[in-house]
């Protein structure tokens, strides 16, 4: 086996193909000490090794006397091209409005090593040149590094015994030293909108990266890191950009949530069931501002924030197979004929918004399309007026029979809302299998209702099945074919 001089001043051939990167650090930027170390001369000052594992890179400054902390954020899972939004919150004696939040992508260990030492990729990594099955990587500035079969990465200091461990990778970095010499870029964007963290991986990016999040009130600061894992987005084989409905692909389903206090699991499970059947889901609310769910309503650690696709004023019933009102007390803001005033100001809304919702319900009814609601969302149908009568007058429905938001009216439950408007509400668990509440869904004509989050998954499946029936598509959408 041929050997080579590790300390020659002759630089290795560099690959000049278009897809190789240019060196970011010139030799004029390298310190004298680094030059000595790269040339094999043992430095008198120890080099601090870089860790390869993800770690909590920053916390509250232990010397600062702060009275607030940045609430922890769990790791995030995403798919390529998907935008994720996470509300940032703090605990303690400080107003969120007084804080400035920041976010940035943390460089990987490989990127930090490459930036510090200006490593050069090669067609030949001189495997086992000095007899330890090591593979060699050179710096553009003349120093040498090697990676062991176990993945440990060292800076050569004249001998194996004196070399400095810089990072401990896995064996894939030995199999492919380009992972170190030519690290992959992180193709994603991160920014802050007020108190919301927005992460958008590129459409063709997969992998994982860290985001460092910071908050400051001008005097004290806090920060933490979050791991973002991005999986490949698998396109729907049945995806069709043609919006013309067919027997196999009806128009999208419109889901209506409140900007404040919608019930997340009723939204999430219903939507998941619809999308599992190949149906497109469009989300609308009073505005396109980020919608916040009830606390502890089934959302994950990301806060369950949802940004609606469009405002209700921009919705046309012509474009959808069905309309679905999600529960949560925020749905009260869409009750057209409710004449009282709620104690919680966010539930009162405006006459203009209520009229918009009522007109929309009437449009769906006129087009003989399904109108659906779950839990407290059923109260929206109860207060809707079609030809002067409640949409639920004479209808049988399922809904949550417990409490309702406080107001100046003698209405204490969602059942009260329904029965005062001529509807009949069944008892909890009385639909289908008496041993479970997961199937409490009722279809009465073109009205579909479900009790609450327990039955949300089946609620979505039933809506999906009904709007996908060829007879329904033919009857409802004949004028657009």
UniProtKB/TrEMBL annotation:
Residues 354-461 form the DJ-1/PfpI domain. Residues 10-24 have a biased composition (Basic residues). Residues 1-26 are annotated as: Disordered. It comes from the Bacteria. InterPro entries: Class_I_gatase-like, DJ-1/PfpI, Prot/Nucl_acid_deglycase. GO terms for cellular component: cytoplasm. Gene3D superfamilies: 3.40.50.880. Coiled coil: none annotated. SUPFAM superfamilies: Class I glutamine amidotransferase-like. This is DJ-1/PfpI domain-containing protein. It comes from Blastopirellula marina.
